[in-house]
Amino acid sequence: DAFGVPLDVTDDASVTAAAGLVEDRAGRLDALVNNAGITGSAPQAPTTVDVATVRAVVETNVIGVIRVTNAMLPLLRRSPSPRIVNVSSSVGSLTRQSAPGADMGPIAVAYSPSKTFLNGVTVQYARELQDTNILINAACPGYCATDLNGFRGVRTPQQGAATAIRLATLPDGGPTGGFFEDDGVVPW
Fold first, then answer.
1. Rounded to an integer, what distance in angstroms lies between the CA atom of residue 90 and that of residue 117?
2. Residue in 61, 69, 85, 111 annotated catalytic
3. Cross-strand pairs, 136
4. What are the residue boundaries of the structural domains of the chain, listed by start?
């Protein structure tokens, strides 16, 4: 069963209230998909960026994930097969960002590194939770037409959700601590 939960990932009280609502309505959580994200304002060249932009993006895209995940962990532990999916981006891949001639979009010193940071956080959770039945992975939805990018993306939200759904429904013993897209593993 699905139901809406009001949530501001940057607000401790909101996250606590959301976890309480899930507990009251469902008693457990089978899958957590951390999909809150912001790009931050432009320009984002490292030499000219307003550091407040970087701080705001990291607060939402990384710290918000940690805040929500930690609040929901007691509910996830009650599930027979809990899954966590952190929605990342291929721009978080250092391998792809540094490939000669790669077109990874505009320079974005707040957004792109926030996704690299999120990938690292995903690995750390996987390491800590390795002796549990909780699987956690990062998913790249591709360049989807959403309000995040002014609906300029070339993929539908439904297409973008496919990898997250696959990871949220992995069988027990499936991969954990990985970074995936439609075509498989995304290089770090």
1. 12
2. 111
3. 84
4. 29-185
Per-residue pLDDT, 69:
98
Fold that domain 29-185 belongs to in CATH: Rossmann fold (3.40.50)
* DSSP state letters, 34-77: E------PSPB-TTT--HHHHHHHHIIIIIHHHHHHHHHHHHHT
Exactly one of 57, 67, 115, 178 is catalytic; which is it?
115
pLDDT value, residue 105: 85
Region 38-53: mean pLDDT is 92
Q: Is 115 a catalytic residue?
A: yes
Q: Are 125 and 69 in contact (CB under 8 A)?
A: yes
Q: Are 145 and 153 in contact (CB under 8 A)?
A: yes
Per DSSP, which regions of the chain are E strands?
31-34, 83-87, 135-139, 179-181, 184-185
DSSP for residue 155: B
Q: Which residues pair with 179 in a beta bridge?
A: 138
